[in-house]
Amino acid sequence: MITTIDDDTNGFRLNLIPMALSSSDMSSRSLLEATLALASFHIGREEDALKHKVQAIKLLSDSFRSTTEQNRIAQFSTCMMLCVYSVFDSSDTTWNLHLQGAKSVIEAFSRLDRSDPSMAFMVHWLKYHDVFSVYSHRAEPSYTATDKNPELIMTLPESTAYNQQIIGLLGCSPELLGLISNINQLRTWLQTTNPPSARGAALPHLLRIRKRLLHLKQEILVRPGETSGAISHTRITLTAELYRIAALLYLFQVFALLPSTHTQIATLSSATTSQAHPSTLSSSPPSTSSSSAVWWNTSLVGSEDIANIVRQGLAVLDQLEICTSPWPLFIVACNVSDDADRIKMVGIIEAGGRARRVGNYQVVGSLVQAVWKRQDLAANERGEKGGLVVVDWRDLIEEGEMMPSFI
Question: How far apart are CA 240 and CA 213, in angstroms?
Fold first, then answer.
């Protein structure tokens, strides 16, 4: 349940398992134990899972201290597998710690390591976790209060045939994952840039990303092999489209961080009304109703426009028997305001949690309902109709508490 395409690109089956079984060194044994921990937890054998996890951590630690053994690829894979385990087990709060460990290990890869055939899989695996880790965490400035605001430099992913291919590990294309990473960068920059009047520099980048998302192509390229599992082209396509819809909704949330100046409004209005997509933006500033809720009047982001995109997301979810992708599911759910649709979303989240047996579904479900409550309270306080309340869900997490993972 951690890849949507089980073909000859499935690194979990074709790279990790052989690596775990082909050597008796501590790094490979730690990977085997981490894999057994994840498998045991998935089938409900939690005590066995805990034993395997503890052994994996011990062997991994020993391998780092060893002066004769440095199987960096196996060490990296163990860190990543422990990260996945931590997401599966909601009582384990160390997923980001293991992710940061994996990032440190991959930086120490030798030239030989980087030429390994499994490297493409490893890079995608790390990128996926890293992008959604950034999404999960609050924006932190990388400069002191006395520094000038950092210049906003952004490179969008290339729209090549390779980048348009849907990767089973990602659930979408590398191009789309790269655009989500760009939105993360803009959110961080906008939330840490002062004074607010300086934030207008983000507008051209937001509009470029919006155009790319509206016209994004994601292609299926299956490489079947003798050991390939069942492959559903429909499910692959729907999952990738759900990620695209969620990315658009996330982008609109970041739009709300822009300051309200007539120049930006005019640019926004003229640049977006030319698009023939139901998510067309219109023109007037947002205002803040609390530290964690932003009110979008229909003059800034039309409620009908957002509603159309949400309906597209709901239509995709209706066609998916089970949604095993927490991030787009969470994004769509947070934009649902109708009671009947909210009830439906609760059922979809619960069904996904039962099927995937991943602890973060419970966390996501609770967080969605907390967002709905905050939205309803903010709407009642304003006493206005026809608007949208955007809640920064990160403000609902107590300081020091674990941030949820959306992988």
Answer: 12
